[in-house]
Amino acid sequence: MEFTKSDMNMTKGVAILFMLLLHLFCRKEINGLYETFIYIGEVPLLYYLALFGDACVPMYCFASGYGLYITFTKTYSVNVKKNVLRILKLLVNFWIILLIFVTIGYFAGKVDKYPGSIEDFFLNFFVLSNSYNGAWWFLQTYIILVVLSPWIFKIIMKYNSLFIILVTGIIYLVTYVQRIKQVFDFSDYPFFALCINATVLVGTSLLPFIVGAIFEKEKIYSKIHQKINKLSHKNTISILAILILIIIHSIYESMVIAPITAIIFICLFNVMTKRKSVQKVLNYFGDHSTNIWLTHMFFYMTIFPQLTFAPRYPIFIFAWLIVLCLASSYVIKILFNPISAMIDKISTVNINLTKRIEG
Questions:
Q1: In whole angstroms, how far apart are CA 320 and each of 24, 219, 310, 323, 324?
Q2: Are 9 and 281 in contact (CB under 8 A)?
Q3: C-alpha span between 335 and 198 (Å, rounded)
Q4: Cβ distance 208 to 69 under 8 Å?
Q5: Cα separation of 353 and 198, whole Å?
Q6: Which residue, of 7, 71, 173, 178, is most buried by count of CB atoms within 10 Å of its CB?
Q7: How far is CA 313 from the centre of its chain?
């Protein structure tokens, strides 16, 4: 009983909701942005709930590693064309968003930032900078992981899984320390600093990505599912276990444990029996997750923060941000879908021509 495509899409749906929760409410100082009434000491309870949302990126990485590994093992070869198409479509989607929101930012009176200088525009356009939107840092990291994935998966297939996790865990800790503490300062060497930053971000994302692939290789989820599925109150037990995870992370607030909480949550969440209506809603968010990820920061931080926080109460702010992101996602899809279909058509024609030539 392995993860299905729907399971991973729902996981992405939950991950994007976690991302919104994290970015909106993971703050101890509210500074008048919204009203909250329940405190633990001097800290809003909402902060601790939002803190658990830092599992969002590891959840994406896990789902990506799991899905890409399945695709890779079907052919046991480096499927460069599929990866190129995957990256190209993501970039086209991203460029549409960039052009839309740079234009909106310009007319909203934020000319200094949108577009800023020509250098700023092209650095963002080619995913070398995320100065327009801080959440875009993962775009470059994801592209690098996809490019490297065939070689990563060959290593996973060849070597012992525990050894690979151990090595990747060490890489994660080293790069995490550099990311948070900036032990080595390369600010005087901009190009070198750019390369080191990209390496560090890949290093901190590699662990859940590889664990996702190893889950598929070793069929780990099937073993977990077989044990938990036998329990008569598996949903209740899973919910209690998730609450314990939230409490643990509330006590130990460091983001360093995010990959662990993410992986455990994915297993607990997916083993739960869910109504079809719940599955439908989460799949819906999964379908829109990329656009929500790439646009939400424009609303709550850079261009429309007053509009986003206007409802004043967290539940309404959260729902309102979802509405704003989904509305923009539909506009983006109207522009993106025809281009995506054209890319697929051209790709199919090229593949058929190559087969005829080779044949």
A1: 12, 40, 9, 5, 6
A2: no
A3: 30
A4: no
A5: 37
A6: 7
A7: 26
For 226-276, what is each residue's pLDDT tens digit? 999 888 899 999 999 999 999 999 999 999 999 999 999 999 999 999 999
- Residue 16 burial by CB count (10 A; 0-12/13-18/19+): exposed, middle or buried? buried
Q: Which one-letter amino acid corresponds to residue 161?
A: S
Which structural domain range is residue 41 located in?
A: 5-358
Assigned token pair, 277: 């209506």
Count of CB atoms situated within 10 Å of the CB of 122: 12
What would you report as the CA-atom Rg of the chain, rounded to the nearest whole angstrom? 21
Q: What residue spans of 26-132 are helical by DSSP H? A: 45-51, 56-75, 80-107, 118-125
Q: What is the b/e burial string over 268-303, where b = at least 16 CB atoms within 10 angstroms of the residue's CB?
A: bbbbeeeeeeeeeebbebbebbbbbbbbbbbbbebb
Measuring CA to CA, which residue among 48, 3, 7, 4 is closest to residue 25?
Answer: 48
Closest among 70, 68, 62 to 15, alpha carbons compared: 62
Contact 94, 135 (CB under 8 A): no
Q: What's the mean per-residue pLDDT of the chain? A: 93
Q: How far apart are CA 208 and CA 59, in angstroms?
A: 7
Q: Which two tokens stand for residue 185?
A: 């300062």
Domain count, the chain: 1
Q: What share of the chain is helix, strand, coil (3-state, %, to 5)?
A: 80, 0, 20
List all residues 6 or more positions away from 106 whose beta carbon is below 8 Å from its beta carbon. Answer: 114, 115
For residue 104, what are the CA distances in angstroms to 74, 113, 233, 296?
43, 11, 50, 14
**Its pTM surpasses 0.90:** yes
